Amino acid sequence: MGIKTVKANTPGRREATFDDFEDVTENVPEKRLIAIKKRRGGRNSQGKITIRHRGGGSKRYIRLIDFKRDKFNVAATVATIEYDPNRGARLALLNYSDGAKRYIIAPADLKVGDQVMSSRELIEIKTGNALPLQFIPAGMLVSCVELEPGQGAKIARGAGNIVYVMGVEGKYAQLKMPSGEIRQVKKECLGTVGRASNPDHRHISLGKAGRSRHLGIRPTVRGSAMNPVDHPHGGGEGNQSIGLRHPKTMWGKPALGVKTRRKRHSDRLIIKRRAKRK
After folding, report:
1. Rounded distance between C-alpha atoms, residue 86 and residue 70, angstroms
2. Which end of the chain has fewer CB within 10 Å, C or N?
3. What is the pLDDT of residues 107-121, one digit of tens each?
4. Rg (CA), the chain
5. Is residue 222 part of a domain?
């Protein structure tokens, strides 16, 4: 993937950058592998907004992705590399030798015509193959890693994400996460060899508010711009500091740097915490 700029005909286009989609080989998704995306606008089953700043956006279909890679020991050929409007990484459409078709998160450098396979046993270590962490050499780059065997990929699914296999000891494999955290995962968990595709996605600049609205992101208002009745940071004449010892959310809960992970059962599996934000 590459990033392109355009002529600065308007203020919005002057700062905007765009995906050139050079790695995409097919524009029409596989009809059997899509579903209608239901819109909820950040509301729960009671109609209450539980996630703010959601709503609108362009219509899109959900691609049904095989995160489990549970079609073991069946060779598959990469038919297309496709764009997915629901994520930054590209998708690869696999045509299995028994006639089945499935989408997977495409690793970087995966090309049309490549042969891939998933297995619970030791197979060739090459880009796109999925196998247990216990068979992957230390220092190898992987993505789409399971947290529990058979649960499906949970880790490093975003564009350009990467996990380092540090080694295997006892029942666990040690992984260095994208955040820098080092943690243990059961060695039977599957991982896909290679980093997730489209690593330049993070460098795209939207350039104008309209492109955020197309993505379904509504405007966000600063608390300090509100009235005291609406936010703990509100009030005052002109630009004022928040007037509190610590930043608060709209509901008065502590924000920015407050620990949200509390006595999780998996704390014992974390060897090194991620670096603190400065």
Report:
1. 23
2. C
3. 999 999 999 999 999
4. 22
5. no
161 in helix, strand or coil?
Answer: coil
Q: How many domains does the chain have?
A: 1
CATH of the domain at 110: 2.40.50.140
Query: What is the residue type of 210?
Result: G
The rounded mean pLDDT for the chain is 93
> Closest Cα to residue 81, out of 153, 160, 1?
1
Burial class (CB in 10 A: 0-12, 13-18, 19+), 11: exposed
Residue 275: inside a domain: no
Are 141 and 119 in contact, with CB atoms under 8 Å apart? no
pLDDT recorded at residue 257: 82
Q: Are the C-beta atoms of 124 and 163 separated by less than 8 Å?
A: no
Map 97-152 to HEC letters: CCCCEEEEECECCCCCCCEECECCCCCCCCCCCEEEHHHCCCCCEEECEECCCCCC
Strands 130-132 and 141-143: unpaired
- Which pLDDT value is given to residue 233? 95
User: Does residue 249 lie within any of the structural domains?
Assistant: no
The SS3 call for residue 265 is helix
Sort strands 182-186 and 163-169 into parallel, antiparallel or unpaired.
unpaired
